[in-house]
Amino acid sequence: MKTQIGIWLDQKQAFLIAFLNGEKTVKTISSSIENFHVVGGARSKTPYGPMDVVSEKKSLERHKHQLSEYFQQIMTTVKDADELYLFGPADTKLKLLDAINKNKTLTFVVRKTETADSMTEGQMIAQVRKTFGLKQV
What we know:
By secondary structure, the protein is α/β, with parallel strands linked by helices. Helix content is 33%, strand content 26%.
């Protein structure tokens, strides 16, 4: 029997809804991505003097690495799946899809990727069942 997994994700957490032989499993993966708010620099003591510049490069690079670790954790968890369904708000699901496509060792098929609003766990399960054509129990 196929292992079919639906993943609802945003940058805070991912809900993995897996179906294997009709058995449903729900797992949550929390991300360790920090919420970056770059604050501006400070004025010098001389009037109309130069301002200190805050480099966003360092924080953006750190965010990129944290996102990569989050995706690696998700891909490690679903590596034995046959089919995958990605859904959720924003573009995090598309970034995960890019990471999956770049990883040549993964053998599963991404069946569908779509935008979905915030959902309850029951709504997520129903959406995954509908996508994979599974019967409601």
